[in-house]
Specification:
It contains seven helices and 15 strands. By secondary structure, the chain is an alpha+beta fold. It has two domains: about 150 residues, 3-Layer(aba) Sandwich (Rossmann fold), CATH 3.40.50; about 100 residues, Beta Barrel (Elongation Factor Tu (Ef-tu), domain 3).
Length: about 270
């Protein structure tokens, strides 16, 4: 038996959708662990879901089965796919949700989820999570082979979003805000390892980080190093440059949103 099954959706928790996914899985694969990774992806925000998968995937064991559903194209001609990479399985709409993982790993196998034996019939045009993705994941956990779920798909045909913005021009790194967490911290696409931010306080305070018209001086180890209400840049737990606000929300203070540009340079 494979597993665990890991759920990531934009369903939220105020409706029955997540519970129904778990019910379907329990009927087909009782006893398989189910982990709720995230159900608060912004509605229809595929890129934010792609980021969440990208940062979380390394912490799960081989054989984990991810059910990722951020699906503004549900009921259309978009494919439902299952992809094996890095010894894990990802079941998702083929809309770019797996993009960042596809940049990181080579695809071992990919199939289109089209075998009616491994779905709930009739298939709703608005709830493929219940009728296609959850059943396929449960059967996979029960030992059904990936190839049994549908026809093979050439990995080059998988839909890909543009990779996280990470450019260097005239001494300035340019990235984007990939995620805003519930504390209002801004997680950027700029990796500290690529910036070579330095180890000493003197090296770190040579950096300037700018969002819109606001420029922050220095890169801290944690936002707790600054006074209440200040906006520090620091390296987050995933190795990415972040901007926070001590006892406040950087997103509210700066009035920024996902996808906005972030600039970093050294003086």
């Amino acid at each position: 038996m494979a597993g665990p099954i890991v759920l990531l959706t934009d369903y939220g928790l105020q409706d029955t959708y997540v519970g129904v996914l778990k019910g379907v899985i329990a009927r087909i694969a009782p006893g398989v662990p189910v982990i709720d990774l995230l159900h608060a992806v912004r509605p229809q925000h595929v890129r934010q879901g792609a980021y969440a998968l990208w940062v979380a995937e390394p912490y799960f064991p081989d054989g984990a089965i991810f059910v990722a559903i951020v699906d503004p194209g549900v009921g259309t001609e978009r494919r439902a796919v299952a992809v094996e990479l890095n010894r894990k399985y990802f079941l998702a709409p083929d809309n770019g949700l797996l993009s960042f993982l596809l940049e990181r790993y080579e695809v071992a196998r990919a199939v289109v989820l089209e075998n009616p034996a491994y779905r709930l019939e009739p298939v709703s045009s608005t709830f493929h999570g219940r009728d296609i993705f959850a059943p396929a994941a449960a059967y996979l956990a029960q030992g059904v082979r990936l190839e049994q779920l549908g026809m093979p798909l050439e990995p080059s045909r998988l839909v890909r979003l543009p990779p996280p913005r990470r450019e260097f021009h005239d001494g300035v790194w340019i990235g984007e805000i990939l995620h805003i967490d519930r504390f209002g911290n801004l997680i950027t696409s700029l990796a500290a390892a690529e910036l070579h931010i330095g180890q000493t306080p003197q090296e770190r305070f040579r950096w300037r980080i700018a969002v819109r018209e606001h420029t922050m001086v220095g890169i801290y180890s944690t936002f707790a190093e600054v006074a209440e209400g200040e906006l520090p840049a620091y390296v987050g737990s995933d190795g990415l440059l972040e901007i926070g606000c001590r006892n406040g929300s950087a997103a509210l203070r700066l009035q920024v949103n996902l996808g906005e540009a972030v600039r970093a340079w050294r003086v």
